[in-house]
Design brief:
240 residues; alpha+beta; two-stranded antiparallel sheet; 36% helix
Length: 240
């Protein structure tokens, strides 16, 4: 662990350089609009390209409480990136911290932010809002993933702090993302997100959780959403 409290990850730059050798290259135009391809942020690797289907996870700032450091410090020091992420996400399911997203108004706020630009800036595939973290599966459009996530976090943090009558950091700074290699990988990610409340012991069935895409699936498991519309107009139905 370094002085910032983040895990020491000296091999990250070498990892990113290796991935850039085989990953598709961005065009000049895409780079100008803010896409970064494979890059590092803090201590995590990210891949940001148009059209990628991404599973993204981010969490409330106090989800790893300092008072419980003995529970999670060893997880931060796991060297292998995928295993560290797996263990840290499992820890999130323990529901540590204040868990402000347990409050329906705040959970509705975050889910609404995801839905607002569905069909324009990106295409939602699945999501879940749990008491202290979220998972979102979406396909990037013309707007870089980092900007999409930044917009979600900035807006919801500002509104949540107003509701809670507080100041300071609401979300942790970084996020995890995994691009979907194929349809099977996407299905696994979708199931992981929608089954998260069941796994965490919050509900017995995925459709019982009020802040998840599971409740919008029809009998064929298709996601049926209302197409976001401009304020003051009626949304049209869409099926993805």
């Amino acid at each position: 662990m370094n002085g910032s409290g983040l895990p020491h990850n000296p091999d990250l730059r070498e990892l990113i350089a290796g991935k850039r050798k085989w990953a598709s290259s961005l065009t000049v135009e895409q780079a100008k609009t803010g896409f970064k391809g494979w890059h590092e942020l803090a201590y995590l690797p990210h891949r940001d390209e148009p059209g990628l289907i991404q599973m993204v996870t981010f969490h409330v700032a106090d989800s790893f409480p300092a008072s419980l450091r003995s529970e999670w410090q060893a997880l931060m020091e796991i060297e292998e990136n995928d295993e560290r992420r797996k263990q840290l996400q499992a820890y999130l399911d323990k529901g540590r911290g204040e868990c402000p997203l347990r409050q329906p108004r705040l959970a509705r706020l975050v889910e609404g932010a995801f839905l607002f630009y569905h069909g324009t800036a990106y295409e939602l595939r699945a999501w879940v809002v749990t008491p202290n973290h979220v998972h979102v599966l979406f396909q990037a459009g013309d707007k870089p993933m980092g900007q999409v996530i930044g917009d979600w976090k900035e807006y919801t943090a500002r509104q949540a702090n107003k509701f809670l009558n507080r100041r300071g950091k609401f979300w942790a700074a970084d996020y995890w993302d995994t691009f979907m290699r194929n349809a099977k990988h996407e299905l696994q990610a979708r199931n992981y997100a929608e089954m998260n409340p069941v796994k965490a012991g919050l509900v017995r069935a995925a459709k019982d959780w009020a802040w998840s895409s599971a409740r919008f699936r029809d009998q064929h498991a298709r996601l049926v959403l209302e197409q976001p519309a401009e304020r003051g107009t009626s949304p049209a139905r869409s099926v993805t």
